[in-house]
TrEMBL record, chain A:
BP terms from Gene Ontology: amino acid transport
Domain (Solute-binding protein family 3/N-terminal) ranges: 35-264
Record's keyword terms, sorted: Signal, Transport
Similarity comment: Belongs to the bacterial solute-binding protein 3 family.
Descriptive protein name: Amino acid ABC transporter substrate-binding protein, PAAT family
Organism name: Marinomonas polaris DSM 16579
Taxonomic path: Bacteria, Pseudomonadati, Pseudomonadota, Gammaproteobacteria, Oceanospirillales
UniProtKB/TrEMBL annotation, chain B:
Keyword Nucleotide-binding: no
InterPro entries to which the protein is assigned, alphabetical: AA_ABC_transptr_permease_3TM, ArtM/GltK/GlnP/TcyL/YhdX-like, MetI-like, MetI-like_sf
Keywords attached to this entry: Amino-acid transport, Cell membrane, Membrane, Transmembrane, Transmembrane helix, Transport
Membrane topology: Multi-pass membrane protein
Record carries keyword 4Fe-4S: no
Protein name (record): Amino acid ABC transporter membrane protein 2, PAAT family
Protein source organism: Marinomonas polaris DSM 16579
GO molecular function, one term: transmembrane transporter activity
Entry's family note: Belongs to the binding-protein-dependent transport system permease family. HisMQ subfamily.
Xref: Gene3D superfamilies: MetI-like
Limits of the ABC transmembrane type-1 domain: 166-356
């Protein structure tokens, strides 16, 4: 029944999306409105949570701010609208939000069917396993015969099964309902390892009495590229969101930080000059100011800084960069060339 | 006293001790009361002892967790005592829970809105102010709240995403409560109308709406409605939510009121007509005052339910007080504190709903007095 309703809603969404293809591009609309509406998660550690003043913070939130800075030169011109997992894509289709940065996995079905478009991955998540440090385990391969806490009937259970079976390993599943319950079972030593998406495991770990006594194993047994979605048929807008994210990744590669970006304006390195708009007109080509990337970096810093602040070493979560490192450092982050 | 004494003389039995306020409290009376109420039979004694044992087992631990070992002051997670409640985040986020992301410079508007909304309470309890004025106040209240919190007229517009926390809960709760009652009265009258089309329409509306869960209407308001509107036209999500809350809860109230209307003796209505009163006069002066009085307990329950239903707007991505509290406990600093949030939410809703219930009890007492 849920599926039927979802299909009907998506179907209607596609219809209305195709009806408004000929409308002016979202970029013009956003500029004219003077504020960008960004759909975010109503509470996910490291990605979007309110601070004591009610300002949103987190990895997803900062992407929204960066886009606002690129478009308006002012990172505060963004309105955050919390979305649940059901209405998030529809909200894009119905123009309730301009972009969705709500830890949504890029999948072919969503991109192809729902009247929305993917931009570029902002965080490579994936199902992982967490074990106690005292076990001395460094990889999943060493967990042969272990008991693993999983959720009932989810893809996570199937992923574990496939992973172990294909490697000729055995395991015992302990089915537990819910994240808090599975953490409790793990802490009570009812299972050796607990599985979930790596970002969720990091949050679970932080909630434990001694977070540092647990380690998230480096393997990812499923692909969960999370990133911003935009409404289909708004090519200029999609480019702006995509390339703003890329600019922040490129900035890290070029060693441009929030604090040294003004200095870097004097740089004579062509890559840096084109990125910061001191040479060429990359910004104009996107319908933005040539200082667009400068503004974004000035507002939120480069990708590495954003990551460290919200998820990584400077945050409570202490999440490893892992796949979310530059391709030059063994990760998957690879900005297309700025030329 | 004389009266009671004479009853005692006639029946030869003492009137139950607790009914006599004049007898001074003595140890022996307490013993008698305990014997009679807690240890009357061996089964009573067993139940009493079991409950006492359970309380002795649980209460000290609960109190210790909640207060004695709990952490009230500090700045970070490191200050929390493990194994007990940690109230630091609640204190840190209190402003956010109350005002949500409302612009700080405009917070006087929220304060005024709370004041205007809460002023309804003494007004409702007062017996000196004419009821006409109370009705006017209650009908004007939603407009004032809307102006203060959402903007319009001389007030600067506030974006819906800036409404959250207690502010939003009060906003939705009070407006929905104030406006759903008049709608309900009209629906109830409509369903009992002599005009067939009106009657069918009201009956159909009531039957359809009350047979579908509120949550699906909220979903429709959030997902489906926008798809039917021409592109570029959008209705503020706050409007949609209020619309659903008002027009769904009105249906339940309509049925409560209809039941109470049917309990008004037919003779009174006929008498009223016979005296030359028209339909509206009869309803306003003869039927409704009695019907509303009789439906007070059920209506109050419905109001409480409606107030609690405002938490469902989380589905539409609006962070009312429950959503706001949940969100803050996802903050990396405070992860792993599972119980504090729900306890604060429960405490808030208990205070709010118990106050509504107290008003209901007050109304019933007042009605009882006026009847005799």
């Amino acid at each position: 029944m849920k599926k039927l309703i979802a299909t009907a809603i998506i179907g209607a969404g596609v219809l209305s999306a195709s009806a408004s293809v000929y409308a002016a591009d979202k970029l013009e609309e956003v500029k004219a409105r003077g504020v960008m509406k960004c759909g975010i998660h109503p509470g996910k550690a490291g990605f979007s949570t309110p601070d004591t003043k009610g300002n949103w913070t987190g990895l997803d939130v900062e992407l929204c701010k960066a886009v606002a800075a690129a478009v308006f030169g002012d990172a505060s011109k963004v309105e955050f609208i919390t979305m649940n997992s059901r209405n998030r894509l529809t909200a894009l289709v119905t123009d309730e939000i301009d972009m969705l940065a709500r830890s949504t996995t890029f999948t072919a079905t969503r991109d192809g069917l729902n009247g929305v478009d993917v931009t570029t991955p902002w965080f490579y998540d994936g199902q992982a396993l967490m074990v106690k440090k005292e076990l001395g385990v460094n990889s999943i391969e060493e967990l042969d015969g272990a008991t693993i806490c999983t959720y009932p009937g989810t893809t996570s259970e199937k992923n574990i099964n496939d992973y172990f079976e294909s490697r000729g390993l055995s395991y015992k599943a302990l089915i537990v309902e819910g994240s808090a319950e599975s953490t409790a079972a793990y802490l009570a030593n009812r299972c050796d390892a607990v599985t979930n998406d790596a970002s969720a495991l990091a949050a679970d770990r932080q909630g434990m009495p001694d977070p540092s006594a647990n380690v998230i194993l480096p393997e990812r047994i499923s692909k969960e590229p999370l990133g911003a979605y935009v409404k289909q048929g708004n090519d200029e807008w999609r480019q702006v969101v995509t390339w703003t994210a890329m600019a922040l990744i490129e900035a890290e590669e070029q060693g441009i930080t929030q604090s040294n970006v003004d200095e870097k304006l004097k740089s004579t390195k062509p890559d840096v000059m084109r990125l910061l708009g001191t040479e060429g007109s990359l910004g104009k080509n996107f319908g933005l100011d040539d200082k667009w990337a400068y503004n974004a970096i000035k507002a939120v810093g480069n990708y590495g800084e954003i990551f460290d602040r919200n998820l990584g070493k400077d945050s409570a979560l202490k999440f490893d960069r892992g796949l979310n490192n530059l391709y030059t450092k063994g990760g998957l982050l690879y900005a297309y060339p700025f030329r | 006293m004389n009266h009671q004494a004479s009853i005692e003389k006639i029946t030869g039995k003492p009137i139950e001790a607790r009914a006599k306020k004049s007898i001074p409290l003595s140890f022996s009376r307490v013993v008698v009361w305990i014997k009679r109420n807690l240890f009357n039979t061996w089964l009573d004694s067993l139940v009493t002892l079991a409950i006492i044992a359970l309380l002795c087992l649980l209460l000290p631990k609960a109190l210790d967790w909640l207060f004695f070992s709990a952490t009230f002051s500090g700045t970070s997670r490191a200050d929390c005592t493990p194994g007990a409640a940690c109230w630091i985040p609640i204190r840190q986020y209190m402003d956010y829970y109350i005002y949500g992301p409302f612009p700080e410079s405009e917070q006087w508007r929220v304060n005024s809105a709370f004041a205007v909304g809460l002023f309804a309470f003494p007004l409702l309890f007062s017996q000196r102010i004419p009821q006409k004025w109370i009705v006017v106040y209650i009908l004007v209240l939603p407009v004032v709240l809307w102006l203060l919190l959402k903007g319009g007229f001389i007030f600067e517009d506030i974006s819906t995403s800036a409404l959250g926390g207690l502010t939003l809960t009060f906003f939705l709760g009070i407006i929905a409560m104030c406006l759903s009652l008049p709608v309900a009265i009209l629906l109830a009258l409509g369903r009992r109308s002599q005009l067939p089309i009106l009657r069918w329409a009201c009956t159909g509306y009531i039957e359809i709406i009350r047979s579908v869960p509120v949550i699906t209407f909220l979903f429709m308001a959030s997902l489906v409605l926008q798809l039917f509107l021409p592109s570029g036209v959008s209705i503020d999500v706050l409007f949609r939510v209020l619309f659903v809350l008002i027009f769904v809860s009105a249906v339940y109230k309509a049925e409560i009121i209809r039941g109470a209307i049917q309990a008004v003796p037919k003779g009174q209505i006929e008498a009223s007509y016979a005296m030359g009163c028209g339909y509206w006069k009869t309803m306003a002066y003869v039927v409704m005052p009695q019907a509303l009085r009789n439906s007070v307990p059920a209506l109050i329950t419905n109001f409480i339910g409606l107030f609690k239903e405002t938490t469902l707007v989380m589905i539409l991505g609006l962070l009312e007080v429950m959503g706001a509290i949940n969100a803050t406990f996802h903050n990396a600093e405070w992860l792993g504190l599972h119980a504090e949030g729900p306890i604060v939410i429960s405490a808030f809703f208990f205070i709010a709903c118990f106050s509504i219930a107290q008003y209901g009890a007050h109304l019933e007492r007042r009605i009882k007095r006026t009847k005799h």
